[in-house]
Design a protein that fits this description.
By secondary structure, the protein is an alpha+beta fold. It has a single domain (2-125), classed as Alpha-D-Glucose-1,6-Bisphosphate, Chain A, domain 4 (2-Layer Sandwich). 29% of the residues lie in helices and 43% in strands. The protein has a seven-stranded antiparallel beta sheet, covered by helices on one side. Strand 4 and strand 5 form a beta hairpin. Helix 1 (14-22) crosses helix 2 (24-30). The chain is globular, with a radius of gyration of 14 Å.
Length: 132
């Protein structure tokens, strides 16, 4: 396996992007999770949990942990399946933020990971517009 990074630009300042990634009500919007179920302890050694609803209507509890938190630039956290992702935020021009997701995955997973990140960032972008 090797590090694979997906980098994109989001419309919004870094502080607002951090807020959308780390505040429960915003987290629920982009995960997307059942309202009122996100519990985030955003600190190194902290954890997160939320409940999503499957397309069949089944409730699925998701959990993870925060391995590193450095506000407002970096989150290293686990996602379902205990995969570790590092999220790095860098201010960019015109009130935008560069976001980089880094995963340690096999090369055969790169296309799927990139598609998944793009789907998540589409939802993050929607929430960013709502909180602007």
């Amino acid at each position: 396996m090797s590090d694979f990074t997906v980098t994109r630009i989001l419309k919004g300042p870094r502080g607002r992007v951090w807020q959308v990634l780390t505040q429960p009500s915003h987290f629920e919007g982009w995960l997307p999770a059942k309202p009122g179920t996100a519990v985030l302890d955003v600190r190194t050694g902290g954890s997160w949990q939320a409940t999503v609803i499957s397309s069949q209507g089944e409730e699925i509890a998701l959990t993870g942990r925060y391995d590193e938190v450095s506000e407002p630039d970096r989150l290293v956290m686990t996602v379902p399946g205990d995969a570790v992702t590092a999220i790095t935020l860098t201010p960019a021009s015109d009130d935008t933020t560069q976001i980089a997701y880094t995963f340690d995955v096999d090369e055969s997973m790169h296309t799927m990971v990139e598609k998944s990140v793009d789907e998540v960032l589409g939802r993050v972008s929607t929430v960013l517009v709502e909180v602007a």
